[in-house]
Amino acid sequence: MTIVSSSMPRVLEIGKQFTFEAAHTLHREIETDSSLRIHGHSYRVEVVLRGGVDPDSGMLMDLGLLQRKMNAVRDALDHRLLDEVPGLAPATMENIALFIWRHLAPDLPALAEVSVFRDTLGERCTCRGA
Question: Is 41 labelled as part of a ligand binding site?
Fold first, then answer.
């Protein structure tokens, strides 16, 4: 028997991360020479779901199912030249976050946030749902 109290949270968040390695070029206003050459980064992505607990499963979503959805988008990015990934260019962190969102959102109605990190550079981009 599940006891629901008015003091219990009604909205929960769960998150899962994945990493990928990829190369790209980038047209910038500064550091143009090094950015125009093909160069690579290690990326970390966090996907966050927000919602209530399903009373039957006791979960917002089975993390194994979430992993399967994330694997498909990871495979589209990992060890790729991002300039050549359809629907992504230019391969900025902002566009990578939006690309991942567009691929996950149709199957994940609880999708709340996608963050893309380049940890070695201390950089992050996050997009959030409404």
Answer: yes
φ, ψ at 27 (rounded to 5°):
-90, 120
Residues 54, 31: Cα–Cα separation, whole Å:
49
Q: Where are the domains of the chain?
A: 12-128
Q: What is the pLDDT of residues 49-95, one digit of tens each?
A: 999 999 999 999 999 999 999 999 999 999 999 999 999 989 999 99
**What is the pTM (predicted TM-score) of this model?**
0.88
Q: Is 24 part of any known ligand binding site?
A: yes
CB 117 within 8 A of CB 44: yes
Q: Is 23 exposed, middle or buried (0-12, 13-18, 19+ CB in 10 A)?
A: middle
* CATH code assigned to 12-128: 3.30.479.10
